[in-house]
Amino acid sequence: MFRDQLAELPKVLPPVGLLDDASADIVERTRAVLSLLDFEASSGCSAIASNPFECPNCNRPCPSTRSPYCSDRCRETSAFVRQFRNSVETGVILGVERQEALGQKLWFVLGGGYPRREALVPPKVILKVLERQGGLCEECGAKATTIDHSGSG
Asked: 36-66: string of b/e by CB count within 10 Å (b at 16+)?
């Protein structure tokens, strides 16, 4: 069943080309990020030998005894892999909502942030925030091109 679900997934995902198309629907862009995955490699899941002194994600030495992972990035990557495998095994991966959720998670793991946030803040509000700050970044003073939360909540 795992292989069947995995074989069906590429057929229902939007093309990778939507990732760069800012005018495309944000849900479709978010789902398209899953197309970056290599589904052939994903189908051969095998058990990993566990060494308590190495990160189970990247096999680097783990400095902490509180977490098996060497960094937040490795922890987040492993969490995504577990969520993805579970979604495939249960069959929910073929649902658009689950694809969007996993796409957001993968987008975060890859370091780009959540694209859905772009759609939540209207361009008019972005311009007001940039104008309020004089068009400069609060952190470094460089010219600001994007906004982020600034302790307003």
From this structure: ebebeebeeeeeeeeeeeebbbeeeebeeee
